[in-house]
Amino acid sequence: MVDVGILGATGMVGQRFISLLDKHPDFNLTSLCASSRSAGKRYEDATTWYLDEPMPESVKDIIVTDSDPNEVSSDTEIFFSSLPSEFAAKKEKAFAKNHVVASNASALRMEKDIPLIIPEVNPDFLAMIEEQQKNNNWDGFIVTNPNCSTIALTLTLKPIQDNFNIKKVHVSTMQAISGAGYDGVPSMAIIDNLVPYIGGEEEKMESETLYLLGSQENGNVTPCNFNVSASCHRVPVVDGHTEAVFIEFEDDFEISEVSDKMSSFKGLPQELNLHSAPENPVIVTEMEDRPQPRMDRNANNGMSVTVGRMRKDAVFENSLKYVLVGHNTIRGAAGASILNAELINNKIL
Does residue 184 contact residue 247 with C-beta atoms inside 8 Å? Predict the structure, then answer.
């Protein structure tokens, strides 16, 4: 068992980390870190619990510590970070001197020597870790996972990219309010409404997707050679991002072949039988009114992306349309970091 901790343990994503790590066969949760106002308190006393499932008994009596590497046990090998971006860069680098940091924060995602990873998509990018350690004189290192909407999209694009020639991708998202955190979207702003702007989200989707589907050599990443255009919107759904995807191919294609490639897609986590890896990262449904967030966000414990309404575009030549749903705080956040850590534990530690 590897001792692990959480940075930002009292927030919504931090709570999701706790829920997913409870009774994990490889990881023993020993350290919970938060702000100085929570430090010194029992976790149960320091936290307003937001998730539907109850707080695990195993964490209630853990004493919260400040997010300072000098305040935590040196035996804790991996820290999962759900820190706000304004604190993440400095804090994560401080922890990486002696610990592994699996970060869900956006602050360091596109740093040159810090790999941005989806284990089924680009596990070879972990080769960048050695250069990162050398550049910073660290014994530990940082690995990041992408934006929640990027992860869902990229998982569906990977089997297409591997088997077809993509010319361009357009995506329009309908994103759940949990993606903004508990206090992120005021109720008066979202009830009976749709907010057609999420700051920085479109830029993240466009740049991160190209990075993830690109290639790396000697620590240098070459983005993939097609364009991605995103439009992102907040909708009154609690959990589960929905995305409408439009892909133009270089050549004609058969829907059945695209569907088969998505359904049969597996990656290194499936080969290694990692604990959090879903049997099928992408599930394709033929039901005409699916996927729906309430019905499909928890597929394979929230770690699979469900695709439906797959059809050829009747207007634009060689074009495909489909809708996807992915759980934004599981596969798109805490679950993504945990799967990264499982891969690291299997291949590096």
Answer: no
